[in-house]
Design brief:
heterodimer; A: alpha+beta; 7-stranded mixed β-sheet; 5-stranded mixed β-sheet; 22 helices; B: alpha+beta; 4-stranded antiparallel β-sheet; globular
């Protein structure tokens, strides 16, 4: 596609592949990230973290650290216990949920390796780090709950005072809620007369590896505490800081400046933010904390980590009749901001695009003594999509049919929308047939199937597999009323304001908080079309609660479907306010005016004024109609009626080297239906990045702990994050079924690639070697697992017991002074 | 990622560097590009009192011919090695392996000597030095000595370079006209070798006259596969014959087990990769 560089006159901005206007400052480094902020007299923090997964803190000796050069203070949990506030879980999934108290700094007990036990404040970051090494903590180790399934048996407790590791039990049952029949009946019937597929799948633990590590600066010297933080959620963080520390909300100004990625990993209020606030408040000086990458990997929340037990019932012909899901979800040692809500979001997604009558979803979130787990790109939906799309392939094998044919037999037909699913969710629009047809065409499906057969027949050491994923997802958590029924701690609305400046320029204020998404460009395109002003005349402001005082921030693919709709409504209000002034200026009746291309004109004449001219008239206010206020500025808050439901068909061809187990992507086609596209270039970026993150779960990434509860994959040497060099060029395209839940017809796209791609890749890998006796491989499908699966007809085994990091305190790799001096 | 504090010195001659090394004693570390040392310092896994930077010693950089050998200064960067015409002509295997080291940024900072002296068994260049029969010139205050590749790698991260000594040159006998291939196995391209096989082959008319094979990450040090080299002597460069000749290449190795694979898997990989490396080196 060709990028658009400048305004194209009366041509619509929506749909134009504009390059992102924010990228120049982001890519050239001209912007200031949080860590670039320097304030006079600023102090720096270093954290002392627990090396143990579970231990009592007997004593902390801070004398040596306090005596170190330029150390201003050393704080321990006991000293600040009453003033540090708490880190909140905003979505207790049941009213009885057992939620361990989460102090920002451990007071008596540490619950995971990496938890903060002391904070050193010094005049420089280096001096703080040096002094942190001098803090001497005396621990008594306790047994740690590490394995998810064992933890669910409550043999070892992550928090002994709670009496159990299971924080809650959450169920959706189609018979009980009246959206379908009894799943047990459906399974019994299938056992007698049909097909039952029973599988257990592992969603390994992942780490949201955003580019910019988390960083916070707090300036306590003004009337308001000013907080800059690399966060996705400045508005929610402000609310929670006020709510948990007793600081009046009006005394807090929270700013998310340019933020380098999040993927859900910055959808959190963090111990580090709270402690930076505490130190600044105590000492009365500006304070900064920036984490190291190693700290980020060990203490930023992780993602996924589930065991899924699945029972799919179908008729002999392949018509799905029921699905039962039993989930264990690892929460880590604390329940994060979304917490048990993450796996619960899967409740409405395991049934995916398929029509069937009986469904039951059971979810048990479990505490362990590991890093906390919370939202990571997709949050609950990738896990659900993986399970159902793997199961549909298994059903196809059972039936001896093509996996696309089996899906088509079961999916909702395009003429059946809006469609209410067995989970009780109403999908507004979609066309699975169209997306699948286009994907097959781009992919060369029949040719690749022929090649696969040829390679099998010839016994080629490199086998070819084809994986299918016909996914849907839900984005833009809404409406607020339903979120309230689910115990969710906030609303699902979004806010926007438009300021018409005297010179006709426009400021758009959004409550969405971009951290790489391109809101500034997309919102400008939308407002340019709506108000008929040039793209270049529009500035989008966000992320600072002093400017954008209302907002629900950015996560869950909600910004465009909720936030941009608020922008549209604010723009419409601007036009409503401009119209009487325009009529007055044109000496015409409002009824005789028409609006187009930014101009109010008197029907049937060439008389007219632009909205920008009306803005000037409203500003000087010399001659306004009686009773009209001298302002066009407008606000809107939009609370959608429901989610939006993007969908798509992804096809993956993977080559499996049966001699080494290496998996190589051969071709990947993604045809996503995300409704109306505002900016195809931004969409392509979201799809490409999303695909790589989903493929990474299938092939590369896993957070691994050793038997002592230490994170082995504590650096990027061992947490094998892919780069562009590891993936192929993707073939992406779109079909368009406009959403009916917002006026733009848009659906979310931020998570689609991640949700869809993981099962497509694993289905392809399994398909390549199924004839060798393999029906599943544990993710990530590492070469060793694939190699072993081929030899043993197994899932490839777990992570090797001898797992050790390349760099590590006990490893020779650290090369103390051994060997050559170089 | 802030290292503990240390003194830093950047001498401009080898004599100055040796003097600095003698002054600082066993608390010193030499930095020769820093691509392995810096992560260790930043994670505070090591805290030397003094870091001696060889980067300003011009005499340690560069590639020249000396009769039947190429002489490569220890501080020559990977990127310079990769793009050198002499190396391309006389030690193709070194080009093949060096171009797989990490990523372009690392290759612009990291050096051949630094990598070899660090002696990470997962590093790519030790196996190449073994296969090419390289020798190592090591300077001390009493003068220089030359150590053969077979004697250079002593143990895990341990080489023949002693305390107070500096590796200054790597001498590689010319392998003009030899085919070469470095078969490196990784999960993501920027990671250390899980296993790799370095092969350089003198072949004519479809027959292998001589083969030299080095193994990466199959033990505490890089290994030379002499028995396999012998088995390849006179063998036709066909899949079947090479397969038979390399079948026992993992015998006697003691590879590590880690996140990327266990020892059993690595032994199996070595056999597969060796076959591919040799055939590739023969242009098959």
């Amino acid at each position: 596609m060709t990028a658009v560089e400048s305004g194209t006159g009366t041509q619509r901005e929506i749909g134009a592949a504009r390059r992102r206007k924010e990228d120049q400052r982001l890519i050239t480094g001209r912007t200031r990230w949080t860590d670039n902020i320097q304030l006079p007299g600023m102090l720096h923090l270093a954290m002392v973290r627990s090396p143990f997964a579970h231990a009592m803190i007997r004593s902390i000796d801070t004398d040596a650290a306090k005596a170190a050069p330029n150390v201003v203070a050393v704080l321990t949990g006991r000293e600040v216990a009453d003033e540090q506030g708490v880190i909140a879980n905003a979505w207790p999934i049941t009213t009885e949920q057992k939620t361990p108290a989460h102090p920002p700094m451990a007071v008596d007990r540490v619950t995971f390796a990496g938890e903060i036990v002391a904070v050193v404040v010094a005049r420089s970051a280096a001096e703080a780090r040096d002094a942190a090494e001098l803090v001497d903590v005396d621990y008594t180790e306790m047994p740690a709950a590490l394995d998810l399934r064992e933890a669910a048996e409550d043999k070892v407790l992550a928090h002994p005072d709670l009496g159990t590791n299971k924080i809650a039990f959450w169920q959706l049952d189609s018979a009980a809620q009246g959206s379908g029949g009894s799943v047990d009946d459906a399974i019994a019937e299938a056992r007698a007369n049909g097909i039952v597929i029973e599988r257990e799948y592992r969603q390994q633990r992942l780490i949201p590896a955003f580019l910019e590590p988390r960083s916070t600066v707090v300036d306590p010297t003004g009337e308001q505490y000013t907080i800059w933080s690399a966060t996705q959620i400045p508005h929610i963080a402000r609310f929670l800081l006020a709510a948990t520390t007793g600081t009046p909300e009006s005394k807090i100004r929270y700013i998310a400046p340019d933020v380098g990625g999040g993927f859900g990993g910055k959808l959190q209020t963090t111990p580090e933010e709270w402690l930076t606030f505490l130190a600044a408040k105590r000492l009365g000086k500006p304070v900064k904390y920036t984490e190291t990458r190693s700290e980020s990997l060990v203490s930023g929340h992780h993602g996924r980590d589930q065991w899924q037990k699945l029972t799919l019932a179908a008729t002999k012909e392949g018509k799905v009749t029921g699905l039962k899901v039993d989930l264990l979800a690892d929460m880590g040692s604390y329940v994060g901001i979304v917490g048990g809500g993450v796996p619960v979001l899967g409740a409405w997604m395991f049934n995916a695009i398929y029509k069937f009558d009986a469904y039951q979803f059971n979810c048990t979130p479990v505490l362990t003594n590991k890093t906390w787990v919370d939202a990571y790109r997709g949050a609950g939906r990738p896990e659900a999509t993986y399970a159902i799309e793997r199961l549909m392939d298994e059903l196809a094998v059972e039936l001896g049919k093509d996996p696309i044919e089996v899906r088509e037999m079961n999916w909702i037909k395009h003429e059946e929308f809006p469609f209410t699913t067995v989970a009780g969710m109403t999908y507004d629009s979609g066309n699975y047939e169209a997306a699948t047809a286009r994907a097959k065409e781009l992919f060369g499906y029949d040719e690749l199937r022929a090649e696969q057969k040829r390679r099998r027949d010839e016994g080629d050491p490199v086998q070819l597999g084809i994986g299918v994923s016909t996914f849907t997802e839900m984005c833009g958590l809404a409406p607020s009323r339903v979120l309230g029924q689910l115990n969710y701690g906030a609303g699902g609305w979004e806010s926007a304001s438009i300021r018409m400046l005297a010179t006709g320029k426009v400021e758009v204020i959004t409550g969405a908080s971009a951290h790489g998404q391109g809101h500034e460009t997309a919102w400008s395109q939308i407002v340019a079309d709506r108000l008929g002003v040039p793209f270049e005349d529009i500035e989008v402001l966000h992320g600072d609660t002093q400017i954008s005082h209302r907002g629900m921030d950015t996560y869950g693919s909600r910004s465009l479907v909720v936030g941009a709709e608020a922008v549209v409504r604010a723009a419409d209000k601007v036009l409503d306010k401009a119209k009487p002034i325009a009529a007055h200026m044109l000496e015409a009746s409002e009824d005789d005016l028409e609006f187009g291309d930014g101009r109010f004109s008197v029907r049937g004449t060439d008389k007219g004024v632009t909205v920008q001219e009306v803005a000037m008239a409203a500003w000087h206010a010399h001659d306004l109609p009686e009773g009209v206020e001298p302002s066009l500025d407008s606000d809107a808050t939009f609370d959608p009626d429901t989610f939006s439901f993007p969908h798509g068909t992804h096809l993956c061809a993977a080559e499996v080297d049966t001699e080494t187990g290496q998996v190589k992507l051969r071709k990947y086609v993604a045809v996503d239906d995300i409704g109306v596209i505002v900016n195809p270039l931004i969409v392509a970026g979201q799809v490409h990045g999303g695909l790589v993150q989903g493929i990474a779960q299938a092939l590369w990434e896993e957070a691994v702990y050793d038997d002592a509860g230490t994170l082995v994959t504590g650096s990027f040497v061992d947490y094998t994050l892919p780069t562009a060099a590891d993936v192929i060029s993707f073939d992406i395209d779109h079909t368009e079924s406009p959403s009916t839940t917002n006026t733009l017809g848009t659906k979310g796209v931020g998570e689609a690639g991640t949700i869809a791609s993981t099962p497509a890749v694993v289905n392809a890998v399994v398909d390549a070697i199924r004839h060798l006796g393999v029906s599943d491989i544990t993710m990530p499908c590492t070469p060793q697992r694939v190699w072993r699966a081929i030899r043993e007809g197994s899932r490839g085994g777990g992570t090797p017991d001898a797992a050790q990091p390349h760099f590590g305190a006990d490893q020779p790799n650290q090369d103390p002074t051994a060997g050559g001096a170089q | 990622m802030i290292p503990a504090s240390f003194d830093y010195t950047a001498p401009t001659t080898i004599d100055e560097a040796l003097a600095a090394l003698a002054d600082a004693g066993d608390e010193a570390k030499i930095i020769a590009g820093g691509q392995s040392l810096l992560p260790v310092l930043r994670m505070r896994l090591n805290a030397p009192s003094t870091v001696i930077d060889l980067g300003r010693i011009d005499g340690l950089r560069g590639i020249r011919e000396e009769g039947d050998a190429l002489v490569i200064g220890a501080m020559t960067t990977h990127d310079d090695v990769m793009h050198d015409a002499l190396v391309h002509e006389h030690a193709l295997l070194l080009i093949k392996a060096t171009s797989t080291v990490a990523d372009p940024q690392v290759r612009h900072r990291g050096t051949l000597g630094g990598s070899l002296a660090h002696a990470d068994p997962a590093g790519d260049l030790g196996a190449v030095a073994l296969a090419l029969d390289a020798s190592f010139v090591i300077m001390g205050r009493d003068g220089s000595r030359t150590v053969a590749a077979d004697d250079f790698f002593v143990g895990l991260f341990e080489t023949a370079v002693g305390e107070g000594e500096i590796l200054t040159e790597i001498r590689i006998p010319k392998h003009t006209g030899w085919g070469a291939h470095y078969e490196k196995f990784v999960r993501v391209v920027h990671q250390w070798s899980i296993v790799a096989v370095a092969a350089t082959v003198h072949h004519e008319g479809g027959t292998i006259h001589e083969a030299r094979i080095g193994l990466t990450n199959m033990g505490a040090t890089p290994l030379r596969a002499r028995a396999t080299e012998d088995a390849l002597h006179g063998v036709f460069a066909t899949d079947e014959d090479v397969r038979a000749a390399v079948a026992n290449i993992a015998e006697g190795t003691d590879p590590p087990s880690d996140l990327n694979g266990d020892a059993e898997y690595r032994r199996d990989l070595a056999v597969v990769l060796a076959r591919r490396a040799v055939l590739h080196a023969c242009g098959v």
